[in-house]
Amino acid sequence: MTSRDRNACTDILLILISIFLAPLAVAIRRGVCTADFIINIALCCLGYIPGVVHAWYIISKYPARSSAETQPLLA
Q1: How far apart are CA 55 and CA 40, in angstroms?
Q2: Where in the cell is it found (predicted)?
Q3: Quick one: DSSP state of residue 2?
């Protein structure tokens, strides 16, 4: 599998997760301590559909981080 195929599989999995738990999908893609996560929680409290649409927007706008970006640097 190429990295492009893995990114597509990750996006599909996140879309499925966002249908049931929209804030979880946003937290996986952007992180927990971000404005996007807080906005998504607020939208889910105001209505379920706006939270899901926002999660889909976040998934489509921000690509998955590469493994080099997520691994800590050695001192």
Answers
A1: 7
A2: Membrane
A3: -
Give the per-residue pLDDT at 9: 86
pTM: 0.79
Residue 35 identity (one-letter amino acid): A
Enter the tokens of residue 52. Answer: 């899901």
Alpha-carbon separation of residue 57 from 9, 17, 51, 75 (angstroms)? 17, 14, 10, 36
* 41 exposure class (CB count in 10 Å sphere: 0-12, 13-18, 19+): middle
Q: Nearest Cα to 39, choosing from 19, 20, 57?
A: 57
Supply the pLDDT for residue 59: 93
Per-residue confidence (pLDDT) for residue 64, from 0 to 100: 77
pLDDT band at 66 (very low <50, low <70, confident <90, very high): low
H or E stretch at 37: helix 35-46
